[in-house]
Amino acid sequence: MDYKTITRSLYLKQHSRISDNDKTFNRIFGIYKDQNYGLGDKWFKNKIVLDAGCGNFGALTVRLSKLGCHSVYACDLGKKWIKPMRKSLKKRGVNLKNIKLKDGDILKLNYPKNFFDFVANNGVLPHLKNKNEIKRGFAEGAKVCKKGGYYFTSFGVSGGLVQSVIFPAVRNFYNTNKKFKKFIDNLNHKEISKILSFIVQNSKKNKGPKLDINYLKEMFSEDFCVFLHNHIQAPYWLTNECTKEFIIKMYKANGFTNIKRIKKFVKRTDIRKYFAPLHFERENKVSKILYGQGYMQFIAQKK
Length: 303
Ligand SMILES: C[S@@+](CC[C@H](N)C(=O)[O-])C[C@H]1O[C@@H](n2cnc3c(N)ncnc32)[C@H](O)[C@@H]1O
Hints:
Structural class: alpha/beta
Helix content: 40-55%
Number of strands: 7
Shape: globular
Oligomer: single chain
CATH class of the largest domain: Alpha Beta
CATH topology of the largest domain: Rossmann fold
Strand content: 15-25%
Order of helices and strands: HHEHEHEEHEHHHHHHEHHE
Bound molecules: S-adenosylmethionine
Number of helices: 13
CATH architecture of the largest domain: 3-Layer(aba) Sandwich
CATH superfamily of the largest domain: Vaccinia Virus protein VP39
Largest sheet: 7 strands, mixed
């Protein structure tokens, strides 16, 4: 199986779980709920937009539709995602008439040049094989964006202890240790609950500290499983390569101006809520150690 097929089949499962779990969907949708990329909500009215590499729970597609876009085009690899995506959008009250879903690879987008008012490439480019592919994928999105239109790209955290040391080691263990791979692949909130119950009971049995099972379940919820799967399973995770300098260079090389980095506080509900302030305040010295350059999200205008 080629790496793209593996990537897509992993996300098909991950995204179906997000779509089926309203709490997790709503937590992720919360990231987009008031997001307008500094353009103002009204800007999106009647615009033609693209969500490239949209996945199959569609939080961003839902948001773009609710902003009143004329049409929201969305693509991802293959066709298996289209049915669950439609189901997810329908469940969230989206009018499917304005939504155009089709099979599409971000390395070769099949839309007219200079067509979209707004193009989103949200967490997709780091899943390509190398920096050359990332440059090609970036250029495809830039090509279908209209002159005067906006191109939003989101990459993830670049550098720091978490992304450049801890997760590469965890991914390496996942790829080399069959038992760990099976454990991660089968992990869900029920499995985590069983582990937590074992820990709490054994602490009690051995006269250790009294542990609060409900609190622990909240900290290691379905949201936490989704986070682990997202960070561990994908064949390629090139967020460290996508530095601020690399991304700005790509925007400039593709004729963009007005390049702005986007910063947003993400409200977490699981254990990550204790790290969210550090994630957000990039200049803090501990943030720099943990997250390097921080989360990379940019928007820019095509000249
Ligand atoms: C982390 S998910 C992000 C999904 C969605 N953009 C979101 O923000 O919820 C990465 C997505 O990129 C898609 N993807 C990876 N490589 C792709 C490619 N070459 N063309 C189109 N989509 C791709 C995957 O199938 C997956 O749905």
